[in-house]
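Write out the bound-state structure for iron/sulfur cluster.
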Amino acid sequence: MGDKQFIKSVCKACHGGCGVIITVENGVVTYLEGDPESITRGTMCAKGLASIQHINHPDRLKYPFKRAGERGEGKWERVSWDEALETITGKMKELIEKHGPNAICNSQGTGRGYNRYTVRLGNSIGTGNRGIGSSHICYFPRLRAFEATFGFNRLYCDYHGWGGEYPKTQISWGKQIEYSSSDGEMAVWFFEALKHAKNLILVDPRATSIANKANLWLQIRPGTDAALALGMMNVIINENLHDREFVANWTHGFDKLKERVQEYPPAKVEEITWIPKEKIVKAARMFAIDTPGVIQTGESLDASNNSTSNGRSIMCLMAITGNVERPGSMMNWIHPACGPMAAFGFEIFDNIKPENIEKAIGSDKHRFLDYGRCHTETVLRQLREGNCDLKMLHQHGGNFLFSLANTQNVRKALLNLEFLSVADQFMSAMCEIADVVLPVAHWLEEEDLWNTHPGFCTRAVNKAIDPPGEAWTTPKIYFEIGRRVAPKFWPWNSVEEMLDYQLRKADITWKEFSKLGHLSTTGKDQKYYKHKTDYWVKGGGFPTATGKVELYSTALEKAGYDPLPSHIEPGESYYSTPEVAKEYPLLLSTGGRIPYHFHTQYTNLPWIRELQPYPLVQIHPDTAKEYGIEEGDWVWIETKRGRIRQKAKMFSGMDPRLVVVQASFCYWEKQGPERVLPSNANVLTSDDGPFDGPAGSVNMRALLCKIYKMEEGDDTQVSFS
Amino acid sequence: MTRKSVFRDPAQCMNCKTCIIACKLKHMFPPHNTTGAAADPKGVNLIQVYHVDPEISGDNVHQPFVSIACMHCEDAPCIKVCPSSAILKDSETHITLVDQERCIGCKACLWVCPYGAPSFNEDGKLVLCDLCIDRLREGKKTACEAACPASAIYVASPEEISELRARKAVERIAGGKME
Amino acid sequence: MAFISFIEGPLLWFSFLFFAAGIVTRFIFFSFVIIKSSKPRNPGWSNTLVSFLRLFLPFHMAVIKKPVYAALRYLFHICLFVVPIWLAGHIALWEESRFDWTWGTLSDEWADWMTLLFLFIAAYLFIRRVILSGIRTESKKEDLLLIIITALPFLTGYFYAHGTLDSIAFLGDNIGTIHILSGELMLIMVAFLFCRTRLNREMCTGCAACELSCPTGTLEFRDEGRNRIFSYLLYQCISCGACVNTCPEKAAELRHEIDILRLFRPTSRETIRSVELKECEQCNGLYAPGPLMRKIENVGLKITDDYIQFCPKCRRSNYLERIRVSTR
Ligand code: SF4
Ligand code: SF4
Ligand code: SF4
Ligand code: SF4
Ligand code: SF4
Ligand code: SF4
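---
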């Protein structure tokens, strides 16, 4: 073996960040394995390990392309990077000139550690419409709810025992952390902490794999999470089980909350959530008595028209049980010396003129959107109607045709954009309708900084091999666009200088950091009970208007929303739309995730596709019998918006009325509508409201549908409307 | 090296299929460089992970996830039936190994394996889990054990494994999932 | 005599031409079939060619599996070619012919001994075919005829050269004619002579390892209904012996056969073996070939556990069930 190198890096196959050792032989990646010395102790997941097939995939985009025919016609002309970037930035400048910066939006897909570049680019352009996409249905409603409650934007579960205590009661709420380490903690930490836990409560419509380990499974009706949290608080407060010391000293509005929870006695909550009231009472007592406890929350709370209340009610539950900043409870971690990476994006927020922020589309109705973003559904509607201020979108990663509600409408809207440029690794369905397509490097091919989600560790993504063809790394693409449109904010001479700049606070250069691998604040470096110190507020307290945890949110009150959490029925349900339920008698959730897929990503890798060649819809065996469906049959799932087909998989661990379709299944091997529409769950979802007040979220996890077996030959051609 | 045995814990496993990909990666099983279309040739899976439909009684949900690969049986029936002596036991570790040169693809081993573990490559030759014997020799964990986020796979001496199994059984009988 | 001159003249030429034309036709058909043969796992042309050439190498696995038989077979074929070509008497005829060809000769003593050896082996093969039941059931009448037709020119030639039968009047006069006629018959027969694979009904377990090893896709099997059916495409076979080498039961054999009809049907497959499949006692699905399972159960392998009666799928679900119950 001539030349065998071992390179330490960080996997970015999900948001995750498992430590990885890459074996490179003669310029070829030959092996990947978890780094036992890293914070993830050598574990990895199927997605990360399959990356080796990702980098060598024959369909990788290798060169920039410019559209040669009509939008979506599939005719491309290879261009140089200069020409591609000039086209994009030229268009940006032209539109700023003509309509002002709000005509431009730059956005991204899921957060693979480059969010800060997207944010900085938007800020440096000065646009108030800094992004559309799925942030309002994933993660950001929770973040904004944290902010509205605690004043800072996130508490994480303390699985680490650095304060000498592990969580005694764990709640996993609408999340499969065992599969998905996105947006927070890593599975391996969860499993380790579980060894120390006394109780595990699972809140999920389905018996997910950790239901085995749970000693209480609350089988909730999708979309009623706030009601459950309020019901649990009802029990805790009425039985006087709350942490009286914490509530008295550190919270604001407990009395008002107490009043509100009286509207949610367990019996009523049982009606709403379909969970037996005994279980609600049991769970509430468990969580209040066996402290400390943590609550792991998932994305399904956000894809709801009650997202802010979902998040806020759970946060109130954390607060009244004193599970804040206590060892083994919910923590806000201290960042290492280099500071939070996100600062790179937010530090120039002031560059956006206040009037542009005010004009952000949809922000008049929804004041708690992802920091300064516009409201996606409103933008898309305006685009379809042709009266939108937003003219151009530059998109990095992501695929709105799969991630946003009502695919047909999304596509129509995107076609009405004056200009669309997309950077991606594959010719995705969104690239297909773009004007310019840019090829992006894979994480094995790039150098970047990466912030562990909980923030206590910043790590080096080291390059193992060169990108294929002319693909560029993400930082480089942003840097090159940035310095063309807003050189003031992208003053560096090279990407490396830009990385050095981001590390300046730690007084370390990228080169040194790359060798070092990480900067962490773990163990004794972390401080608990920060609200009793000057950490946030001099003299102690939380950085809210009242200096306390706002059970009664003054920020929401000021913006004209209900300052207390409440239950709002999903936009489509047996109770809110009984007339729809007559024709569509089953409850539909689009939350089905496969551990080795990340949305549409990785379904085109041979190893992964082999594990599951077709999308699966989970149906209760009783229901299936009623409809004459058997395991493995193709099934049509139909809602008012359209229908899709998936293969039936019997699963008795859920309510017989519930049907769970697999989200985002992309037929990469096909073209045009056949690639996007046949099994895409978002063909079924509604983009037509109701929306969550503050966060603008749309309900995607609790809909009504009907199912029927696909007859032979009924796999009719689909087409874009 | 001492004798080796493997235990895949159905109570820990959570069906993430990481072990399958880790194994494919370790052995670099084909297909490679294809587009991943459903019609692409199927590769070799040494591990299968199965889901047992949940059984719900009270607060208790019982749905083990069982990952099955070659168990390296003590008195392996596959070795007894192989007409071309293509399967053998490693003298040191008692790991069941395959000599693919000799295998003629008669599948007799598949028809006698109690677990249906044998899989066949595109040449029709038997491929079995070799417990990553090269990694074990280097003192490393097997690829699947190292990658499993739920610590559901254990490779150790038969004594340690039976002790572990016994301990797990006791834990289970003690009724303590978490309590 | 007109008859004798016809036999020595036009008929002889006809036989030679027929022989040559047969070979050429066969070669064309063969090439055609081989080129468009569609083995899913094509081992590559060079591999196929090597397998083909192995046909001429005496020392492959078949020798080890049935050493005596293999040795006799090779001796038989050597004599079959060497004696007629290098026999002094035949060469004299070529010299006299209009071609005026000649080449080295075999000493008469050698020729005699080789002829006797040849006849002896032929007799052995003939008797073996009649007596050994396994082979008999596989043999058709034509197979015996084949040996007789092959042996006849040698027998008559020997008599002719030594005058052994001169005392019998008719034979004494006509032995030369008979010798030539039988030689011509043999030449004509060669055009219809194929070397083909047989799967011995009593020994074959239906495991299909032979199918896997066949480089050309000549042997194929499909599980149809309750049976596993092996089919064979005569023209595609390159007589490489891979199937013979592979078969763990010594059940595959390469043997000559006269087949007049198939000469003109280069692409037709024939079914050569059908094995019943074993039914799973749990799900009633068919899984493994029956004879193989019987062998596994019976031949002292001491695998008598019940699970053997279940298909791998059911074994797995039983295992899952055991786990489900034991971990409850
Ligand atoms: S990696 Fe571990 S948890 Fe995942 S499927 Fe395999 S054994 Fe189960
Ligand atoms: S292949 Fe089957 S029978 Fe052979 S050792 Fe492995 S598990 Fe046992
Ligand atoms: S398939 Fe190969 S290893 Fe298995 S019994 Fe047959 S020859 Fe032996
Ligand atoms: S031990 Fe190695 S060969 Fe066996 S299943 Fe695990 S990774 Fe595959
Ligand atoms: S290899 Fe032998 S036993 Fe197996 S099917 Fe072929 S002839 Fe029969
Ligand atoms: S049938 Fe047998 S002899 Fe004929 S080509 Fe196939 S392996 Fe060779």
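---
Chains A and C do not touch (no CB pair under 8 Å).
Chain A has a mean pLDDT of 93.
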